[in-house]
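Translate sequence into structure tokens.
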Amino acid sequence: MSELRQDIISGDWVILAPGRAARPKFLDEKKKARTPSPKAACPFENLEKSGNWPPILVYPGKDLLNNKWKIAVIRNKYPALMPSNVCSTPTEHGMYHGMTGIGAHNLIITHDHYKNFADLEPAMAAKLLETIQTCHMLAAEDRCAEYVSSFFNWGPGSGASIWHPHYQVLVLPMVPAHTVHSLRGAHRYFEKHKRCVRCDMIKSEKKEKTRIIEENKYAIAFAPYASKHPLEVAILPKKHESSFRGASKAVIAGTAELLQSVMKRIKKYANDPDLNFFVHDAPLTHGNYRHRDYRYHHWHIEVIPKISTAAGFELSTWIDINTVDPDHAAAILRGKK
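Result follows.
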């Protein structure tokens, strides 16, 4: 039986229609093994030779000649937004409104050509997530910036055009409408209940247990009740923290541990689909969209395997059809198909 479910934060609806796929086809489909691109043609193997040096940040040190760097933050050669010494300004086109495309678009490169986030040594995965956090903190110093979007695309189906694992950070001069929508929903819940909605979600999931995939001392991973996508996973710090920028090293390490585990589970139990993950941070506090300290927001990471495709119904209604019940999705990722 199909079921309509409403996201408690955004108010968005999703149709769960497991009857459309009694056993999800992606579990049985034969998939070709991933084929890495040649290192010789990779622009991230020698950052100096490819014109990507000096970096904005590098770990550890700056010894490129001896190839000792492990993580480097560089400017995207083909940015969506351009840095400038002035802030973005409004533009008018008759009845239409816009803004000049000023901001930043940086890449975080890990040295190993073959290891994505899931395959890194745990300490390096934690350091990488810390580096993403540092990029968010640096953006907060820019008085022109209002929001930071950081994400990872893995595989061509996710939007990745280069094999070598790399992570992207865009600094925006505005808060995306989707983010505003989510923030307003979280604020409404906080005003009504005087509690964080995502903290309550954690309590509810721990009580029901069926959608939890894994947890540790610092974070929890579960399939959301109103998942829009098959095998969608939310990873939240257990302790309430409104901003990713303020998370402790221990929380970052615990979150990185779960993120690695979730990605490995998706590869092992879901036939290695392409995927995206992204960080949902609070807006920068000096922006135009202000709700003081955003105490009602709870930063988190979403992981979206690229299993389904939005078609006419989804695009025309913004109602997603998910053929994998979140309870079943969690069971699949726990290895209990």
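Note: The two ends are 20 Å apart (CA to CA).
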